[in-house]
Amino acid sequence: MKHIFSILICCCLPVFLSAQTGTIKVSKPKSLKSQAPIDSLNTSIDNYSKNKHHLFELTTFSYEQKYFFSDLDKQFKTIDNNGKMSLPCNYISMSIIDQFDITRSWYNYPGYFTFSYLIPSTITFNDSIKEKLRGFNLKISFAGQNIIDRNHCAVFFTEGINCGRLKIINEKNEKAKNAIFAPYLGLVVRLTFSRFTLFAVSQVDYDISSSHWKKTWFSKNQENEIPNFKQGGLTFSLGINYSINKIYSR
Known about the structure:
By secondary structure, this protein is mostly beta strands. The protein has one domain: Beta Barrel (Porin). The chain has helices spanning 2-21, 36-51, and strands at residues 60-68, 89-101, 108-118, 121-125, 129-149, 153-169, 175-193, 196-205, 214-215, 233-242. A hairpin with a 2-residue loop joins β7 and β8 (196-205). The N and C termini lie far apart (89 Å).
């Protein structure tokens, strides 16, 4: 029995010692393939930043004037007696002018989204009646074509819809509104100087909405008859944009 016990000790001791002092196996690191999407995403972001026009990062603030096609001599005072073009309406506007990528692949176009606020003014119609004039416009581009597209200058056409309204208010606080829904064609010119960018926009639109003036909610009809009016015309604007980032080269 002693010999058998000694043999068992000799056989089990190495196994016990190896279990206590054996080498710890370290698993090989997993493949770095899982990091590939992250690296690809970072590369895409870097490439986008390098190709991104810095001038589109902030809102463009503009001053614009609109000349209506309608004969306003029948309704409002004009510059001359011919009444072929009205006095310009003055607006201040905020725009995002960019290369819009709708589907992230095959459909992208240059254009602008613009909100314009009419600077309140006083108008006169029928040679005696004075009214306060207010209004706004929202311009949305749906298509565009680049003519020149460089870092320091660009020229492009864009097409879209102009919607909004004019509102007049008389001394009795009686209000009337005239809506506009007009397809437009715009021409945009961009010049970039360091961090500053100038935009010049020319736009022509044709009003296809009703020409009638209608009373607003919770307001009485105006006693004076107001002639029908279409808001189609020519718009010219000049805006400025400032970028906090440096100019990126293509």
